[in-house]
Design brief:
Shape: elongated
Helix content: 10-25%
Number of helices: 5
Radius of gyration: 19 Å
Strand order of the largest sheet: 6-5-16-13-8-9
């Protein structure tokens, strides 16, 4: 199996890359059958974005901190682990952000699309789902739409629900909502289109971020799952992504 190794810019990840390449050989990305990403969850996201359109499976090994999307790091038995790995197919969110420029900015998000206030003043955001206004005015620090894989990341920190893979749902989660104060978010069908309209955008500027692509001073943001893009992550059989997402719901 031709393996390409990509490492985060840390001493631990670079040392792991050197050791694995010396032991198993390293292929270029153009010739690789699988990519091994070394680092934390940020490295997995960076690798998947880098490989968009390449249809290469990515097997992550944790050389970072949390490593929710990564497998345990071990030098031994890599070829056997890759052969036995289980695949999880993910579809990212596509964000279209309008700022008043002629063309909107587009980006893909594997974890989430989030809107956040840029100044000390709270944001005012209108929320529409499939063309229907669901919240006329949300006063908040921000709001996000997450993928199931990303539901354990920023979404969880914002007290959003964890969504199992295959549930065909997207969590819509407010960030520090002030009005309506008791609104905790919603679960939407995976095919839903969510539109955010920023109210009083000059007085209360808002940025929109798809993973790590940020667009500032947005006026309108459209988000929907892009089923035309498929990303493949590989996991050890005893610790697959579906199992991790379920187990996370029982973590106390």
């Amino acid at each position: 199996m031709r393996i390409a190794f990509l490492a985060a810019a840390t001493e631990v990840a670079r040392a792991a890359q050197d050791a694995l390449a010396a032991r198993y050989g390293a292929a270029s990305l153009d010739r690789a059958e699988v990519v091994v990403a070394l680092g934390g969850d940020g490295m997995m996201l960076e690798t998947q974005h880098r490989l968009l359109g390449r249809n290469l499976p990515v097997y992550g090994m944790n050389c970072g901190s949390v490593g929710f999307l990564m497998n345990d790091f071990r030098e031994d038995g890599l070829a056997e682990r890759l052969a036995a790995a289980q695949a999880a197919t993910l579809h990212p969110l596509r964000m279209r952000a309008f700022t008043g420029a002629a063309e909107p900015s587009e980006a893909l998000a594997i974890n989430e699309v989030s809107l956040l206030r840029e100044t000390r003043q709270a944001a005012k955001i209108r929320v529409m789902v499939d063309g229907t206004v669901r919240l006329q005015e949300l006063i908040c620090d921000g709001i996000l739409v997450s993928t199931p894989a990303g539901s354990t990341a920023y979404n969880l920190s914002a007290h959003g629900p964890i969504i199992p893979l295959g549930a065909n749902l997207l969590p819509l989660t407010p960030i520090s909502a002030f009005r309506p104060r008791r609104w905790r978010g919603a679960l939407l069908p995976a095919e839903a289109e969510v539109v955010f309209e920023v109210l009083e955008h000059e007085k209360r500027p808002v940025s929109a971020t798809a993973d790590y692509t940020e667009v500032r001073d947005v006026r309108r943001v459209e988000v929907r799952e892009d089923r035309g893009v498929a990303l493949t992550m590989l996991f050890d059989p005893d610790h697959g992504l579906s199992e991790r997402i379920i187990a996370e719901q029982f973590t106390v």
